Amino acid sequence: MRTGTHAQAEGSGSVAAETDKARLRRIGVIDVGSNSVRLVVFDGMARSPAYFYNEKVLCGLGAGLGSTGRLSPKGWRSALAALHRYAALAGRMELSGMIAVATAAVREARDGPDFCAQVERETGLQLHVASGSEEAQLSAKGVLLGWPAAEGLVCDMGGSSMELAHVSGGQVHDRATAPLGPLKLAEIADGEKRARFVRKQVKALRRAVAGEPRRLFLVGGSWRAIARLDMERRGYPLKVLHGYEPPAAQLLETLAWIRARDPAELSALTGTSMARLSLVPLATLALEELIARIEPGRIAVSAYGLREGLLYRQMPEAVRRLDPLIEACRHMEAAASRMPGFGDTLFDWLGALYAGRSPAELRLVHAACLLHDANWRAHPDYRAELCFDSVTRGNVGGIDHPDRVFLGLALLNRYKATAPDTTATLFRGILPETRAAEAVILGRAMRLGAMLSGSATGVLEHATLEPGDGRLTLTLRGPAREFAGEVVERRLQSLASRLDATGVMICAE
């Protein structure tokens, strides 16, 4: 009973060739954007990225570019100082590869080549200047890292540009770029001219990228800031941006709400920097027009973008095909559980309980089994709650918010015979009651399997759990008979009660 999702993607490109794939271990990515300069270090080539280090400086390198044609002198100095620091940090982190990429501002500025030359001369970093098409492709590949089966349009808002790409079947198809970043829009003082400009550019983007808008994936700091404000405005309980899916009508209300408020008020509400929030009202104009133009079926916020796209583009095809959720859970089990490998055994043992379920349901059961013991070191009084927090707020891809809450409730019930109703009530708006009930059943099933075997292999292989005819029958054969006991009986009856069944334990030859 093994599950997994698979996706195919394009082969590696020019940037990928900069690093020897056979030597990839700890990989650094420097992203020189129009507004921010960031260093991200990924700890290895895992299918679900682990962030070893992450630092950002808002430099405003592209401020004033539209009127001067040149990079901002202040932004130049700030970016250069940040890159000096990043180069020094990278030298201490034993990186096996480093990629440094510059996007719209450096690409468009007359003095962009001079900036790249000074960076290389002073820091040794060679900036690869991505084209608009390549920038769109990389952002879309970042989305494929988090959603292997992504279908729809990817929109990446940078400081100076906005990219749109179509993803389908694990591939990036049409893609285009437009000068719609907030730094560009800030240079158009007249509100009517700005509105006309936005309409014209969004129309051109949509004409160039003709994919079906089943889902619109939002990539970039401006979109994340908007999503955070939307969460606060509606009192949304799960403050994880990746996979957040606000309804389009609600998001449009939030865009108008943002424009009606002072950035200082918004900064106090979310903790987002004033430097970022001062540009967000301009970004709302582009998003409002984009939603009106493409009418997406769903909208999802992605924490993965260009930097993760660079990682994805270098991955061997075999790694790309892995399920990011299952691989992340395997890593957590290997690093933190008492008996690594038992999660697969537990998943197989629960097979009869989940016979006929869809692959989407089975992968969540599998993920829960892999994580069932990952927080065993926590204090017993708080272990259940920590399990819930670790998955609902963890850095995991390939999962949406309802699935996060489902896994959290399952793990909560794995450790507590009676989970607090307040948790389920708080997240009721995310997870329907029927699915919450399913999570309780899964938690109690894992609790039974872990208690019966002590989370050790060699026990469940000689036991079966079979539902049917109003009974839930636990049969212990051979060496498993020695593991029968009062506590196992209690766990069996606890699970059976949730299935409206009677628990029956049989010791057989």
CATH classification, class level of the largest domain: Mainly Alpha
* Beta-strand content estimate: 15-25%
Helical content band:
40-55%
Poorly predicted runs: 2-23
Mean pLDDT, all residues: 90
End-to-end Cα distance, whole Å, is 25 Å
Number of helices: 22
CATH superfamily of the largest domain: Hypothetical protein af1432
Provide keyphrases for this structure.
Nucleotidyltransferase, domain 5, 509 residues, disordered N terminus, Hypothetical protein af1432, 5-stranded mixed β-sheet
3D structure, described in words:
With 509 residues, this protein is an alpha/beta fold. It has 22 helices and 13 strands. A 5-stranded mixed sheet has the order 3-2-1-4-5, sandwiched between helices. A 5-stranded mixed sheet has the order 8-7-6-9-10, with helices on both faces. It has a 3-stranded mixed sheet with strand order 11-12-13. Residues 2-23 have low confidence and may be disordered.
